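Please review this one:
***
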Amino acid sequence: MLRDYIQLVRLDKPIGILLLLWPTLWGLLIAGNGNPPIKIVLVFIIGVILTRSAGCAINDFADRNFDSKVKRTLNRPLARRAINKNSAIFICMILSFIAFIITIYFLHIDTILMSIPALIIYLSYPFMKRFFLFPQAYMAIAFSFGILMGFIELTGKIPLEAYLLFLANCFWAFGYDTIYAMVDKEDDLKIGIYTSAVTLGKYDSLGVIFSFLSFIFILSILGVLLSMNLFYWILLLGAFLILIYQGFMIVRANNKLFNMFLLNNRVGLLITLGIFCNYWFK
């Protein structure tokens, strides 16, 4: 039973937590001038884990009638009826409540106010695929809110670099989540739900490549704006090469799509290290 709940909130597959965490850390590092308070960093990390876990629970509730028809998801707890829908909703509510209480206790009022729409967007994302042609774009916004919250918490404002970082992450998240959607494209077409991979059709790979190039371009603008040092540029180049490799592979070998999606964890890590090293070695 415990294993089923761990699977429900994806603690056994932390890739989603990491992809949500990396951009949050980017925002905290830049807003904190390379030295954000450890307490605040820990609060944001816990918030990421709780929010992502709650999102997974509501996602499986929303897709409970679809997951059993998709090869990749047919063994999820709700799809195989190991957990009922009421339990999934309860877990989502409890995790969301804990995250909100932590936010109220440790963070500033402006950050708390921003966390409310962030949580609403994140929890409503699973329902977008029923009528919105690009639900991955909606998800990308949800995955980028931590950046703005970090700047609000540490600086009390949202400067240009925060908006650039937010936009860059939106492009990156749209790109990697479109790759994720490409894995299930055939099943989603049969079921009749929308994803960016379905909407873009034969141009899905081009959409991913454009998103990744936009991501690197905006991060380059950010690097110039903030006078980032050589370490940032070297690690950004490493991230760029991984993204180029992904683009090449999704065009050439569709059977490796999920592996390409997983590579984005390395992209996030490299950029985090690049931003950290920029401040550490100044």
About this structure: The chain is about 75% helix and 0% strand. The mean pLDDT is 91. The radius of gyration is 19 Å. Residues 6 and 12 are 6 Å apart (CA to CA).
